[in-house]
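Consortium newsletter contribution from the modelling node. Members have asked for a concrete example of what our holo predictions look like. Here is one, prepared for the pyridoxal-5'-phosphate complex that several groups have been discussing at recent meetings.
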Amino acid sequence: MIQLSKVLNAFVDENLQQLRTQGLYNEIDSVEGPNGPIITIRGQQLINLSSNNYLGLATNDTLKEVAKKAIDKYGVGAGAVRTINGTLDLHVKLEEKLAEFKGTKAAISYQSGFNCNMAAISAVMDKNDAILSDQLNHASIIDGCRLSKAKIIAYNHSDMNDLREKAKAAKESGLYNKIMVITDGVFSMDGDIAKLPEIVEIAKEFDLITYVDDAHGSGVTGKGKGTVKHFGLQNEIDFQIGTLSKAIGVVGGYVAGKQNVIDWLKVRSRPFLFSTALPPADVAAITEAVQMIMDSTELHDRLWENGDYLKAGLQKLGFNIGHSETPITPCIIGDETLTQQFSKRLIEEGVYAKSIVFPTVPKGTGRVRNMPTAAHTKEMLDDALAIYEKVGKELDIIK
Ligand SMILES: *Cc1c(COP(=O)(O)O)cnc(C)c1O
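And here is the predicted structure:
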C-alpha cells in the first residue's frame, strides 16, 4: 500500500482546490512538434506568439547539424561537474566566445539562466551586505538575493530617484560591507529597458556593485549584443548575466565580467561546483548560435521589423500596447477575467498568445503578451492581426 504523509496530502489537496476554484490553476498545453512560428497543440495549428525563440534559432537547421556532430564526437552527456572532469574543450571555447560577445575579459557558463542567479549573487554577497533590487526583477533574481541572506532593499520600478535615495541611505547607515544594485536589462512583461546609464552613475556615486540580468536583451538589443552594449557600458558593469535559452535558442546561462570575478565564481558558485555541466550538443550549438549573432544582424533586423509591424497593427486596431521599447508586445486588457477570456478566444481562433495577470503583473493590468520572432512571416502576422480584430470586437475591447 502507498503510504503518503497525511499532512502533505491535506496541504496539497487544499491548495490545489483553492487554485482551481479561483481559476488560477494553470493547465499546461503540450506542443506537438518544434516551437517555431506555427505550433500544433491538440492537433490545432496556431500562430505562435508566446515563445522566447526571438531569432528562430531553437529550430535552426545549421544548429541542429552542429549539435548532431557534437553528439557523434562527444556523446550525450558531459559526464561530471565542471570542477571534476566535466569541463570539455567545448565549454572552454563557449566561454571564450561569450566573453568576446559581451566585450568582457572572461565568462562562465551555467546550466540555466535561473542557475546563474542562484550561483553568482550568493558567491559574492552575504548577511553583512545589502542588495538594491528593482521591484519588477525576475523571480530568479529574487530567489538568488534571498539565498545570499543579504538585506534586500526593493526600489520602485526604474525609478532612479528612489534608487538614489535608497543607495544613499544604505551607504550612510554604515550597516553593510558591500552594496549591490541588480536589475533586469529588459523587463519581460512590458518590454521596457533598464536605465543603465543612470544606474551606473548612481553606482559610482555610492560605490555599488553592478549586476545586470539581460536574459531578454541578448540577441535583441544592442544590435544583438545586449542592453549593456546598447549603452556602451561593458566596462562599467561588474556582472553581465544572460540566458542561452531565449534568443540564443538552446539552454543554459552565463555570467560575463572581469577575470578575477569569473575566477572567483569558478571556485565558489555552487551550481558550477555541484551540478553537472551542460551537455556537448547544447554547448556546440550555443557557440555556433553566438557566432551567428556576432556575424550578422539579419535575424535581429527581421525580429525588430516584425515587432514594429505587429505593434503598429495592434495600435491601429485600437489596442493599448503599453510602452515597450523592444519587440515584446503586450496587449493590455486590464480586467483579469476579461484578459483570460480574450486569450482563450484568440487561441480558439488560431493565435497562441498567453494571458498574464496578477500576481505576475499589477492588479488591473492583465494583458496578453505577444512575442514576435524573426521566423514569423508578414502573412502570419497579418493573420494574427485579423484574429485580434475579430476577437477584440467580439469582446468589446475595441470598436
Ligand atoms: C528567463 C529569465 C531567466 C531564466 O533563464 P533560463 O535560462 O530560462 O533559466 C533569468 N532571468 C531573467 C531576467 C529571465 O527573463
